[in-house]
Here is the input.
Amino acid sequence: MCGIVGYVGPRPSQDILLSGLARLEYRGYDSAGIAVIDGDGQLGLRKRAGKLKVLRDDLVDHPLADGTTGIGHTRWATHGGPTDANAHPHLADEDRLAVIHNGIIENFAELKAELVAEGFTFRSETDTEVAAVLLGREYRATGDLVTAFRAVASRLEGAFTLLAMHRDEPGLVVGARRNSPLVIGLGEGENFLGSDVAAFVEHTRSALAIGQDEIVAITPAGVTVTDFHGEPVEVEPFEVVWDAAAAEKGGWSSFMAKEVSEEPEAVANTVRGRIRDGEVVIPELDGLDSLFAGITRVIVIACGTAAYAGMVGKYALEQWARIPVDVELAHEFRYRDPVIGPDTLVVSISQSGETMDTLMAVKYAREQGARTLSICNTQGATIPRESDAIVYTHAGPEVAVASTKAFVAQITALYLLGLHIGRIRGTLSPADSARSVAELEAVPGKISWVLEKEQAHIAQFSHWMADTQSVLFLGRHVGYPIALEGALKLKEISYIHAEGFAAGELKHGPIALIEPGQPVFVIVPSPRESAELHKKVVSNIQEIRARGARVIAVAEEGDAAVLPFADEVLRIPLAGPLFEPLLAVVPLHIFAMGLATAKGLDVDQPRNLAKSVTVE
Ligand code: AGP
Here is the structure.
């Protein structure tokens, strides 16, 4: 979950490293550091606990000699607290070698014992320093950084992206990856490495993705990629489809505010180019009909918000493709010894495409013979490369840790997939397909309506709730995952207890939580399309109101039944039942942001979290 940047070229590297780290800071912000080989061939290092600003200020107060070869790192602490000593880069080989790392080296303790027994000493508690000292020892023996890397990489267990440079080889940065992200930026007479393309997108949009157990060496003249045995490997070039501006705040108070405002276009861009004559045709799946032939079940695996998107998508996939769909948390699926095989399609959902829990579950599913399809928002990411097929969401870069626009894009991609499979399997009539496509194409405008009509209203009452200690969320059917998502958003950025429940579950225990003044959001089904469920949810509202709850109802325009029982009503436009979740979630995203802002919290970089959880 760390941000990693590497640069070689003709330009001073410090500003390039720092601006790259600024774009990667959402990946981890416990500490930050850079190392540079300066004009005199000296290796300079500066690293500080705290956010990137602390490092920047330190470099202003105490400048570091600049140079054209450099690496930089922003950390989410795994081994050892966020201190200056534990910050990356770590030095070895008498401070002539600098190393940065993203991931977890699971056998670091035994390697450290081996090195201590040989008389090596350590200055930090990190697993990374063990890799650095190991690399330094190998460099002493070989005098070649790539060769040393090969010797070390094959001894490491766990997940790692490592970058290193040595004072004796200026103009060279070497990287190695296993189960952790690393992409290459190709410039003119300069080259870049990064945890994701945000590291270098302001300099180049030409990129290369490298695969598992590969080593990359970048110099100003070029890029060499080999496997851990030294054999050259094929790499896949790609063009970054968004520009640096897209990754900037663009005048918004936070990335989250910007990204919530982009929810309409995230849906529109995910649909774009995938509708032909009223039918869904997904270009990435051209020629892959066989992937769906003979499948008897679908298992959706994901974590956090992505899992809630999967829970919503389940209803549509089952309705349109007439195939059983289960949704599982990737880290539970991975270790429960599931009964899966060639008749199972495992669909992973991941905004970053680097979530280790999800990646490990995908690899496990493939080992068990299942077919795998990745829904992902990040080009060149690891999970799509480990899958049989990919359906990209086109939400654009999502920087805020709290996922919003990617969530609605994930649901959209699942709906497109369900319509696609329904067409292939013949379980969906062209008329039904066209109706659903029309509904999907209308969603962006309806989300915009919610943003325009309700943003101010929600911001207002989220202020009077700034001191609340807990908020509950109720939903039913496709509204239930939205209740879970609303609760998660609130937890992760406002740090108050929030819990989502299936409305029908209330009387089986949770109603005991209701006391006078307890705020409860209720996602109300449409009275037009889901009359039966609507009645039951209105009864639920009466039950909690009778016990003093403060009810905020999310209900469709014109639904008068909720008015006598709700303290606040947030309106969404009319939509088919399967499409309401894409609208009902928007007020909950706005509310979470409003409450966190009212509490003076950092909505983009909430405590203890990182944007991409690349450790299991
Ligand atoms: C969502 O707001 C959280 N940041 C988190 O639950 C996230 O959805 C989860 O870690 C999965 O991330 P991914 O989509 O990148 O795999």
About this structure: The pocket of 2-deoxy-2-amino glucitol-6-phosphate is lined by residues 303-306, 350-352, 355, 358, 401-403, 492, 612-613 (CB under 6 Å).
